[in-house]
Structure formats: structure tokens, C-alpha cells
Amino acid sequence: MSLSMGACPHAWQQHHLHHRGRMWAASPAFRRQLFLLRSLAPTCADGGRASSSSLRPHLMYAAAGPVYEADAEAVVRRITPPLDRARHKGQAGKIAIIGGCREYTGAPYFAAISALRVGADLSHVFCTKDAATVIKSYSPELIVHPILEESYSVRDDERESVSSSILAEVIKWMERFDCIVVGPGLGRDSFLMDCVGNIMRHARQANIPTVVDGDGLFLITNNIGLVEDNSLAILTPNVYEYKRLVQKVLNCEVNEENASEQLTALCQKIGGVTIMRKGKADLISDGKKVTQVSTFGSPRRCGGQGDILSGSVAVFSSWARHFLLSNEQPKETSVNPMVLGCIAGSLLLRKAAALAFEKNKRSTVTTDIIEFLGQSLEDICPAGR
Ligand SMILES: NC(=O)C1=CN([C@@H]2O[C@H](COP(=O)(O)OP(=O)(O)OC[C@H]3O[C@@H](n4cnc5c(N)ncnc54)[C@H](O)[C@@H]3O)[C@@H](O)[C@H]2O)[C@@H](O)CC1
Ligand SMILES: Nc1ncnc2c1ncn2[C@@H]1O[C@H](COP(=O)(O)OP(=O)(O)OP(=O)(O)O)[C@@H](O)[C@H]1O
Ligand SMILES: [Mg+2]
């Protein structure tokens, strides 16, 4: 795919985009996209309340490429499992966060508790020993494993054995998880990074979907092989994390004028991964198409909202995977559950942030937003349906 970033004169660019837009609208890929979004329209799940016009994809030519505004509410309704009395603990999702160190205890907590508040049954945190007691004291709901170590607590001659025992401890649990989130509050200690790299390799071998956020993105930006060609990996970079990824992988600067093309190119260059570029609108791509969620959330940019998002995306992508496995889709639609998970997580966070801001205005903090995750989901997808 050509990157052609900023190289073309303005008039040519306009013509080129218009022409390419028409070609795209007439293409089989576009028709597949329409079919896909229609096939995701709610049926019995919402009692048919959503109007058919609200389910039409809105094709836009923003950022020099076709970007679809996702019908995120329809996606949430479709993939959220009903609260079935026959289900047992664990069936609505088991999530693990790999993160939490001396400096950061909030981030892994926000991600883990958000996973529970969205509807997962069990939420684990694998963190350093220093962080564990603190995280446990925030909430008895979380299962906290104090197993990670930073360089300062490991002698050079112990490194290999400590690293193996950390991996062995995580492996005991790994197969149980529907998704892991690597990075919230992980820190950037070199020994810790090596151990977490091993955990990611194991998760990949075991086919466990992996959301990579925060310091996990720092790790993979310097070791892109950890996610290369992994279709079960979701990267959720913020503005700085995205900049570092683009510089490292595409060897150029972020170009807002070609945002969707650049995002597509980044996905393709890494191969197979889904990327959600966070910002005013969240841009989501798996290298095939670019979808956005731009529902207004809140003007408050307090730290921790990305952590809520990573925990929520972990749950929704697990639900989407399950939904697609149990409802066979026509082959041509090839819906990517990782993309659906990003769309749903983005919408839910934004709705919860809007409600929290309405109540708390300038004093809105991350815990206020977490309080509204339940209501936001309930507004879209009532528990009693
Ligand atoms: N309460 C907590 O424990 C929280 C911990 N967090 C964790 O904190 C760690 C670091 O995440 P950050 O998002 O802060 O990551 P960074 O360390 O990349 O960024 C820190 C801050 O530095 C500034 N910055 C970074 N690069 C810049 C650039 N090129 N130009 C201008 N300013 C720049 C930005 O204000 C940015 O928010 C992660 O592990 C993350 O999960 C955050 O999730 C926030 C909440
Ligand atoms: N300018 C903006 N306007 C509206 N929403 C935004 C804006 N910037 C970010 N968001 C939303 O806030 C959420 C978190 O994104 P953000 O960029 O704050 O992540 P982050 O820096 O990783 O957060 P954290 O502090 O948890 O690490 C995303 O859903 C994103 O869409
Ligand atoms: Mg972050």
C-alpha cells in the first residue's frame, strides 16, 4: 500500500480522494462492509427497537481515506450475552491484567475493575509484590497475583531462574483466560519487560487474545515481533504511544491528513493486528478498513480513561469472539471480533464519561467514570431483556 504522505499537491489530492472514494463505494469490499454492518443489526437482542436507518454505516472521507462511523450501539447490543440463568461462573469472561509496579497501582486496578463492571465474571491482576497489597486493598473483587519482579529486587545470577518461575506461575493460569491486557501500570524496568515478553509469547502460543496498552506498547514498540502477524492482538495507543509506533514501524512522522491510510499501513506492516488509535475520535483498523467511534464523551482528560478502555475492550472482544463462534457468519463477511470489541469498548467508555461529567463536571475522575459503566451498558442493552 502506498503511503504517499503529504507528497501530492492539494488539487490532485482532492481529485484522487474523490475518485478513490467512488471506486471504493462501488467495490466488492464496500458491499461486503454494508452487508457486514447490516448483519450486525439487532434482531431479537433489542426487540427490534433500533431503526433500520440508524444501522446504516455512515461512510466518510475524513482523513484521506474511507472511515466508517461505526453503529457502535448496534454492535454492543449484538455481542453482549444475555444474562442466562443456566450459565455458570466464568462463562461471561475471565480477564487478566499484566501490570502494576511500585509507581503505578491505579492503572491495573482501573482496567481490572472495569472488566468486572462491564460484566466479566473474574478479573485477575499479575503485578509486582510491591503493588499487590495496594491493589488488593482497593478492591476485594480482584484476584491479585504478586509474582512479577523488577531489576532492583533480583540479583544478576538469579535472573534466569526468577524469570522461569514467573513464567511457570503465569502459565498455570493462562489457559483459563479469555483475554489478557498487557501494560496498564507495568512500568518499564528492563527485567520486568523481558519477563512480560515471555508471557506474551506464551499467550500467543496458547491463542489467548491480548490487548496491549500503556507500557506494554513501549515493550512491543521495541520488540515488534511480539505482536507481528498476531490476529488476536489489539493495540490501544494514545497520542504519544501512536507517535512512537509510527516512527518505529513506518519510519516516518504521524500525518493527520492521511490518518486512516497511515493507520491501515501500520496494521499491515505489523501484520494481522487490530489497532485502536485513541483521540478525539477513536480510529480502529485491522488493516482492511478503518472504523471510527466519535460519540462525544467528556471534555475532562483525567488519566486512567485509557485503562478503563483496555479492560472494557478485553471483555467485549471476548464476547464478540464467542458471539461469532456460536453464530456462524457468512464466509464473505469475515467480521473481526477484535474490531467489534474496540468499537463496543470505545462507545461504553465515552457514554460513561459523559454521564460522569454531567454529574461531577470539572472534578470528574476515573473512579467516577467507572461508576457509570453499568448504567451506560444498561441504557444500550438492558439486563432484563
Ligand atoms: N493512576 C495510575 O496508576 C495511572 C497510570 N498510568 C500508567 O502510567 C504509565 C505511563 O503511561 P503514560 O500514558 O503516562 O505514558 P508516557 O510515559 O508515554 O507519557 C507520560 C506523559 O508525558 C507526556 N508525553 C509523553 N510523550 C510526549 C511527547 N512526545 N510530547 C509531549 N508530551 C509527551 C504526556 O503528557 C503523557 O501523558 C502506563 O503504565 C500507564 O498505564 C496511566 O494509565 C494513567 C493512570
Ligand atoms: N480529545 C479527546 N476528545 C474526546 N475523547 C478523547 C480525547 N482524547 C482521548 N479521548 C478518549 O479518552 C479515552 C482514553 O484515551 P486517552 O488518550 O486519554 O488514553 P490514555 O492516555 O492511554 O489514558 P490513560 O491515562 O489511562 O493511560 C479514549 O476512549 C479516547 O477516545
Ligand atoms: Mg494509557
Report on this model:
It catalyses: (6S)-NADPHX + ATP = ADP + phosphate + NADPH + H(+); (6S)-NADHX + ATP = ADP + phosphate + NADH + H(+). It comes from Triticum aestivum (Wheat). Pfam families: Carb_kinase (PF01256). With 385 residues, this protein is of the alpha/beta class. The protein has a domain of 227 residues: 3-Layer(aba) Sandwich (UDP-N-acetylmuramoyl-L-alanine:D-glutamate ligase). It is built from 14 helices and 11 strands. Strands 1-2-11-10-9-8-7-6-3-4-5 form an 11-stranded mixed sheet, sandwiched between helices. Helix 7 links the parallel strand 6 and strand 7. Helix 3 packs across helix 12 and helix 6 packs parallel to helix 7. The N terminus is likely disordered. It binds ligand NAX, adenosine-5'-triphosphate and magnesium ion (MG).
